[in-house]
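Hi support team,

I'm opening this ticket because the web form for multi-chain structure prediction keeps timing out on my end. I have pasted the exact lines I submitted so you can reproduce it. The total is 740 residues across two entries, so I didn't expect it to be a heavy job. Is there a limit I'm missing, or should I split the entries? Thanks in advance, R.K.
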Amino acid sequence: MNSEIDTSEKPGSLLEVREYKGLLSWLSSVDHKQIGIMYITTSLLFFLAGISLALVMRTQLIRPNNDWLSPEAYNQVFTMHGTTMVFLAIMPMLTGFMVYFTPLMIGARDVSFPRMNALGYWLYLMGGILIYFSYFTGDTLHAGWSAYAPLTSVNYSMNSYLVGTGVDYWIVGLILTGAGTISTAINILVTVVDLRAPDMKLTRLPLFVWMSSINAVLMLLALPALNAALVMLFMDRHLNALFFNTAAGGNPLLWEHSFWFFGHPEVYILILPGFGMVSEIIPVFSRKPIFGYAFMTLATVSIGFLSFGVWAHHMFATGMNFTVYYVFALTTVLIAVPTGIKIFNWIATMWGGSIIFDTAMLFSVAFIIQFTIGGLSGVIFATVPIDWTLTHSYFVVAHFHYTLLGGTLFTVMAGFYYWYPKITGRMLSEKLGKIQFWLMVVGFNGTFFILHFAGLAGMPRRVFTYPDLPQLASINLISSCFAYVLGLGVLIFAVNLVVSFFKGKLAGDNPWGGWTLEWATSSPPHPHNFERIPPVRSLRPLWDLQHAKEQPGAAAPHAHEGDSE
Amino acid sequence: MLLFIASEAIFFIVLILAYVVYHGTSPGAADATRYLDVPRTAVFTACLIFSSFTMHHAGIHLRTGRRRPALTWLLATIVLGAVFLAGQGSEYVYLIKKEVTISRDLFGTTFYTLTGFHGLHVFIGLIMLGALFGLELKQRVTNPFEAVESVSIYWHFVDAVWLVIFPVIYLWVLL
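Hello R.K., no limit was hit. The queue was backed up. Here is the completed structure from your submission:
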């Protein structure tokens, strides 16, 4: 398809794109590609901050009765680690990929509302800065990323150190990023509905776009619940309202219900685009079409529905009645089914394929295994008595890090290795990539697998130290050592990103032999995306195009109606 | 716009649920709700409902390009909305004089938060209507269909939220 693009103007790398030169072109940009890059870059910086906080925690826990950090400081560190990773690192990183690739994959010029797209990014950046600004007030939020009432209340005067302004920065920052996320969600949905290329039917939509759209629905309906909860908290703190004031009859459970009604869809918001990424990567690197496309989309839709009906499983320990337990235990078990369908589909896609183990594929395969472990330890929690025993222990920490770190982060890494050439025009170093991969796999599993046992041994999470018991001491020492290995892996990734940006091998249009529309344009794409959009006759338009060329007598690509399916 | 409305709906549902959950749990609430003037609020409610009809008419005329009736109906919508807000304001003043404040009890907390946020939305709606009115006056509406559609969907939504709030707060008190 090279011949269809005017090669004289084709930029070789991101630095050579004329329209992207100068700081002003970025600050004033409404181009979805520039905004996507800004999302990804900003979120990477927050990600580095978040992982540094994690290493600070593991350093504090490296030996029992450590007093390197005070309890207050430790509380701030784990709160900021959670808040940063969820709201400022992973979510916007996924949003960046969604904003960058949704228009490209559906053959559109840009998103539907480019200016609103920019608004979403700037709201996110300002919200993130506000949350981090609370460090300068000397008092960051202490109450954990879920900020349970009444720990956030002004009336918590027994421990006056909890009263500080950190909570207020946190509230305002999250409302800002939340508003930005809602506007982006609207944008993605409208783009997918309105701007698809001719003949790009919903049944021909790439899975990444499908999952991003479902993700946008979740963002749209989950975040307002968080905003409402934050508003109530703000009223409590500044207008002396009584929502969470138990002395006046207020109920902290109202916070927990509102928060988790947002919070559980949120964990699917954090994984669905990742599912989409591996659903793009695994077929390409197995040289086979995805197995069970229809089942994949239906499974995503059902995850979307069910995710709004499982929130109370975060609250089994609050003493609800048994009917509630039964219902939420059942929905929690049920939501594992569509997830299981996906895992089987990915495995079936690889089955019998000629698999190419490049770094992107390695991360995808590791993701499947680690996410399955995380998923299984999650289903265990659906059993209410087990939840009662293990809740708030390190077993929970191990569980959700297997889904969010071993799951989402690994998919994002795969996404980076797969799409970095398209975004920048240069390949990431495969050599550094493979070193990074093994460091991260060993580091991650070494850090978190053993923490399951810390939880079973009764070690509570969110406590700054632990008594000198032989089993806890050795578990924590091992976990902390592996955490540094993981940190080293991330460092190599950062080095790879920077070095490859200047020195990487030039990528060309389609380095992986991908089949979706983003590979039909130059790398990096021209500011207006496509010179000419290839006809979409199946799930894999570029495959059709290639085979039309190879077969003599079939000159016109549109003569090949649906030949790949 | 519809997607935005869906998002807003969740926001209000959470606030309404907060009101419902705390209904009757607050010891001094019966004392406070005595001061709610239901018939008076019903009149203002009627204003808001009626403003949805005037908005509908304004929309029809805007789309067909009849300026004069369009401007008249828009103005009527703005006036009715403003009357509703004024009614809410005077109600707040009266209640606060009777020492029903946001920090008095849970009724005050939930009542002011819910009606306050609704009032804020009415206010934003008025700004949007004002902008539409000004643009139409200066003949600057480039894409009347889209703008009118968005504003009127928003306005009907704000109206619909009140149709839930009014029975939940004011009629429930009568029971």
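A quick check on our side: The radius of gyration of chain B is 18 Å. Let us know if the file doesn't open in your viewer.
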